[in-house]
Specification:
This protein is 32% helix and 25% strand. The protein contains 10 helices and 14 strands. The model has no long low-confidence stretch (mean pLDDT 94). It is elongated. By secondary structure, it is of the alpha+beta class. The chain has helices at 5-14, 22-29, 33-46, 69-75, 94-102, 152-170, 223-226, 232-236, 242-261, 265-275, and strands at 49-53, 57-62, 85-88, 112-115, 136-142, 175-177, 181-184, 187-199, 202-212, 282-286, 292-300, 306-309, 315-318, 322-325. The longest helix has 20 residues, at 242-261. β7 and β8 (187-199) form a beta hairpin. Bound molecules: biotin. Biotin is lined by residues 93-95, 118, 121-124, 127, 129, 131, 137-139, 181, 191-193, 209-211.
Length: 330
């Protein structure tokens, strides 16, 4: 990504603890002092808190919490994921946009489409996914060298990456509900939707989409969702930087993705099990055909399917469904 004047200015301000004079910036960036001043005014409008003091210059006090490409590329520690970022103010769905881009074979692996708001967010099992401003709505284009039936492992890896990143940044002990809901205290904080285009034994591309309720007030959710959903804001009572969270997720995901490319699937499953809140529980799964399966969630198999032990001792393998943990009366 070519650094624009705007990005170079942000970098310069970030890298300086105190004030940076207009003259130094204009020399460094090779633009006039008026151009620097204009850029600073623009950044202030975007939410950067910059102090301007005569004879001293500019000092960055805080960065905006909303998504910004310059902030993401400044923070990025990955070599594959997020090296190309496509940020949109608003989209129908980041997954749909990423699929459209991935069909153009020129697009680089690891490209991420992100949006401040989605009007037609896609959820699992054909559902709509509410995507309000303040959330993290992102879809990455991947070309894993694995079989199509192994694709759920990429989604598992993403659930682990998200869990680790949120825990690291917020100390909230989030966990994973099968297959890949990000859960906190019995409420859904986020979800993941992978979509693939493949032939029999070859994945052309996989779009990995994840959505997280981050800086969203519960009052913004429609009433029926208020009892089931949560957001980082609800739990922490403060906003966090979407840019920082995003790059932390990408960093975690990149190392897990390398394991997938090395076919170390067991290691992904082990990490997923470490954070899951499903195994060992009495559960009920609403299946796509409208029926329901109940029993004890025993394990997940090599491709991420749930092994359910029913009351008559039968083991059912469930590849897809909506799982609820049954609260057993004490
Ligand atoms: C679920 O139902 O739990 C999965 C939700 C996945 C939502 C994300 S938001 C970003 C990406 N774009 C979409 O349209 N959906 C996914």
């Amino acid at each position: 990504m070519r650094e624009s004047i705007r990005d170079s200015l942000i970098t310069a301000l970030h890298d300086t603890k105190g004030y940076l004079s207009g003259e130094v910036i204009s020399n460094r960036l090779g633009v006039s002092r008026t151009a620097v001043w204009k850029q600073v005014q623009r950044l202030k409008k975007e939410g950067y808190h910059i102090l301007t003091v005569r004879r001293k210059g500019y000092r960055l006090l805080s960065s905006p919490r909303d998504l910004f490409e310059g902030e993401i590329s400044r923070l990025l520690e990955t070599s594959l994921l997020g090296r190309d970022i496509r940020l949109y103010k608003e989209l129908a769905s980041t997954n749909a946009k990423a699929i459209e881009l991935a069909r153009d074979s020129e697009i680089r692996e690891g490209t991420f489409v992100i949006a401040n708001l989605q009007r037609g967010g896609k959820g699992r099992l054909g559902r709509h996914w509410l995507s309000l401003p303040g959330g993290l709505w992102a879809s990455g284009i991947l070309r894993p060298g694995i079989l199509p039936q192994q694709a759920p492992l990429v989604t598992f890896a993403a659930a682990v990456a998200i869990t680790r990143a949120i825990r690291e940044m917020t100390n909230l002990e989030v966990s994973i509900k099968w297959p890949n809901d990000i859960f906190y205290n019995g409420r859904k904080l986020g979800g993941i939707l992978s979509e693939i285009e493949s032939e029999a034994a070859n994945i052309h591309f996989l779009v990995l989409g994840f959505g997280l309720n981050v800086n969203i007030r519960m009052s913004k959710f429609p009433q029926p969702l208020r009892a089931q959903a949560t957001s980082v804001y609800r739990e922490l009572k403060k906003e966090i930087s979407l840019n920082v969270l995003f790059v932390k997720i990408l960093k975690q995901l990149e190392s897990l993705y390398e394991l997938i490319q090395d076919k170390q699937f067991e290691s992904i499953l082990d990490s997923w099990k470490e954070y899951n809140c499903t195994l060992g529980e009495q559960v009920s799964v609403a299946l796509p055909d409208g029926s329901e399966a109940t029993g004890v969630a025993l394990d997940v198999n090599q491709s991420g399917a749930l092994m359910l032990k029913t009351v008559n001792g039968q083991i059912k393998t469930i590849t897809s469904g909506d799982l609820s943990i049954v609260q057993v009366a004490a």
